[in-house]
């Protein structure tokens, strides 16, 4: 069976940094940062969650709350007893252009009991969070990253992704073509070769891809390649070397695709980011 997440995580990493372990009592505001996302684990207690002043939901069982993108939110708990939280700030490589982050909804809440295979990881995470041991924060950071991967797996396997890349990766046939793009951006993909990977006719593949992922296969391929090019530019690689690695025959061809995707030339894009 193909690994739908391996190529994604190999190219675009995610990291976590714990900032809260313990009870939150009363009203707690988490303000919108410049680029960070958040992952909150509620071990016990009742929590009201509000976005922009109105209550979005009420949590009455151990749950996970994921905010992949910057979004202010408020937790309202019992002023005396509160609720036990463990919280981490998330960093997605590539920031707002990280394809995993782009594919997720702005807010996700999942009961911990529904995340298959996470019980042992969560038990260790909570044990470390509420004990004072050497290496505690470093271990918690790594455990949060494991939980984040398990959440992505859960969303795909449970069919909770309605559109976009993760929805395509959840599709029994389309995922074969998407993984092929992720693993071999440098190849000369055509609609016919991608349809063949998916085991579908050319016309059915094109329609199904657009309906499921939300764009044409060609647009998806360009977005993925430009994302890889941006990543390489941030690491200081030259455009000439990048072009060959992401499937463009020349710097000019990559520059045209880059500008069509971003509205800026590679040079302008890099200068804008300092």
Task: Count helical runs.
Answer: 12
Radius of gyration: 21 Å
Main sheet overview: 5 strands, antiparallel
Number of domains: 2
Uncertain segments: none
Helix/sheet category = alpha+beta
Quaternary organisation: single chain
Written as H for each helix and E for each strand, in order along the chain, the element string is HEEEEEEEEHEHHHHHHHHHH
Helix content, binned percent: 40-55%
Query: What gross morphology would you assign?
Result: globular
Would you give an account of this structure?
This protein is α+β, with helices and mostly antiparallel strands and 274 residues long. The chain folds into two domains: 6-157, Jelly Rolls; 166-272, Arc Repressor Mutant, subunit A. Helices cover 45% and strands 21% of the residues. It contains twelve helices and nine strands. Strands 1-8-3-6-9 form a five-stranded antiparallel β-sheet, with helices on one face. It has a four-stranded antiparallel β-sheet with strand order 2-7-4-5, with no helix packed on it. A hairpin with a 2-residue loop joins β4 and β5 (54-59).
Annotation keywords:
about 270 residues, alpha+beta, Jelly Rolls, Arc Repressor Mutant, subunit A, 2 domains, five-stranded antiparallel beta sheet, four-stranded antiparallel beta sheet, 12 helices
